[in-house]
Structure formats: structure tokens, C-alpha cells
Specification:
Number of helices: 4
Oligomer: single chain
Strand order of the largest sheet: 9-8-11-16-17
Helix content: 25-40%
Order of helices and strands: EHHEEEEEHHEEEEEEEEEEE
Shape: globular
């Protein structure tokens, strides 16, 4: 079933706010990357992010639609995929850490995520996991041809890269519309769903966020905190995400410094 669902209808001022917010988010990520190190805790990163969000004139979005989430940022370490609740866990050299942040700036939301290795350059299978997952995000962005692009065009491009890299493609979690709210229609899967797609129009803004593992694709929610989603088999996971504006002829990535 093909659907046409416009998440756009944003004013030029709202789109400019998303551009500004996206640059702020990218700047915060640059500083978080430098801050994370062995001996730093997840809660330290949460506090650091909270201060930076306020410093740059934005507000933390996780507090708005889900006020019971215990943090301003999701920190998912090693086998945790997404929605990781910040804890007093102290990072060790070699930990694989995914950071996911949504901020609100001038009433508009932007969403982004990255994965890094603590205290050293990634190597071996971990390097492969991070490189291929990030490459799949870029492939999804490059699949956007502008007005009329299908969500299946994006999903197929991401899935092709992940499968070629022999990574587990997480199917229970997908990208989404973003802007006026943190999560909006449409779903943007990281794989093709034959017979189901949404046609994107110029002005739509979506979060594209491939998630992949070194093992299987099944995930489970942590029964203790009720938020953190982990790989069922305990394999390492990676997550990369950008907020993207659909233009008449292509795509504009909003969550970059330039």
C-alpha cells in the first residue's frame, strides 16, 4: 500500500529553526565525543549534555513527551542499542557507546545519533560495525531524489549496505518523521517493506537512523529500567542518525555543523 503523508507544512521560519537547531545539536555532539573517556560515567555525560543544551539556547526534548525518562540524553553502551538510560556506569577503554539526542530550538525538534569507541580508535569487527552502519546512513540519505521519494527507496538502500556488510539489521525499530514533534509519521524503516511505503514530499523532515549488530537482529527491553533496548544475543550494536529535509530535488542534512 502506497501512502502520501505530508509531515511538512512548515513555515520558512520553522525550517530555519530546524537548521539552527541541527547545527547546535551537531556542535554538542562534537563536544560530547571529546568529553567521553575512560573514567567518565554515563551520568556525567548526561549532566554535560544538559548544560550544553541550555548554554546554546535549546531545551532537552526527552523531558517533554516522556517526562518520566530519567535523563536528557540516551546513552547505550555495548549490547544496548537505543533508549539507554544514563547510569553511574564508568566507561572503560574499548566500550562501544551510542549517543542519541533530541533538542528543541525555537519550538522545533531535531534528532541525531552517533556511535564511538571509548579511549581508542575502533579496530577489527567493531571498526567494521561502525563503518558499515554509518555508511548505510549515508546510503539512505543519498537514495533521496527529492519530492516523490519513497520510504522504501531509503530503506532498501540502507538494507543493501548492512546486508552486504553481513550485519544484523534491526527491524523492530525504525526512523520517523520529526520537527513539530519528536516522533511523527511516517515510519522510515531501515529495510524494504514490499507493498507498504510512504511517498515523501518537499518540506517533509525525517530522522533516518540505521541500527545494526555484530550478531542477530532481535532485541529486548531491559526489564529493570523499562527503557533500554538491548540485543537479545548480547552482541555489540551501532546506531547513526541524522535529521533530513526533503527538498524538491534531493535532501538537506540538518544535523551537521555546516
Amino acid at each position: 500500500m502506497t501512502r502520501e503523508l505530508i509531515t511538512g507544512n512548515k513555515t520558512p521560519a520553522q525550517l530555519d529553526a530546524m537548521r539552527e537547531g541541527g547545527r547546535i545539536l551537531a556542535r554538542i555532539f562534537t563536544e560530547i565525543r571529546a568529553y567521553i573517556a575512560p573514567g567518565v560515567t554515563e551520568l556525567d555525560v548526561n549532566e554535560f549534555a544538559a548544560k550544553k543544551i541550555v548554554e546554546y539556547g535549546a531545551t532537552p526534548t526527552y523531558r517533554e513527551p516522556i517526562p518520566d525518562f530519567p535523563g536528557v540524553i540516551c546513552i547505550s553502551t555495548n549490547e544496548a542499542v537505543v533508549h539507554g538510560v544514563p547510569t553511574d556506569y564508568m566507561f572503560e577503554t574499548g566500550d562501544v557507546v551510542s549517543v542519541d539526542l533530541v533538542i528543541t530550538y525555537k519550538g522545533m525538534k531535531t534528532d541525531s545519533a552517533f556511535t564511538m569507541v571509548v579511549g581508542q580508535e575502533p579496530s577489527g569487527a567493531v571498526k567494521h560495525l561502525l563503518a558499515v552502519t554509518e555508511k548505510s546512513l549515508q546510503a539512505g540519505i543519498e537514495a533521496i531524489s527529492g519530492d516523490g521519494t519513497s520510504t522504501n527507496d531509503i530503506g532498501a538502500a540502507i538494507e543493501t549496505v548492512l546486508k552486504k556488510g553481513k550485519l544484523g539489521v534491526i527491524r523492530e525499530l525504525v526512523g520517523h518523521g520529526v520537527g513539530l514533534e519528536m516522533h511523527m509519521p511516517p515510519d522510515v524503516p531501515n529495510y524494504r517493506i514490499r507493498g507498504r511505503e510512504t511517498i515523501l514530499r518537499a518540506g517533509d523532515t525525517i530522522a533516518i537512523e540505521p541500527m545494526a549488530t555484530l550478531g542477530g537482529e532481535r532485541v529486548v527491553t531491559d526489564p529493570e529500567d523499562g527503557w533500554t533496548i538491548r540485543t537479545r544475543d548480547g552482541s555489540l550494536a551501532a546506531h547513526f542518525e541524522h535529521t533530513v529535509l526533503i527538498t524538491e530535488t534531493g535532501a538537506e542534512v540538518l544535523t551537521r555543523t555546516q
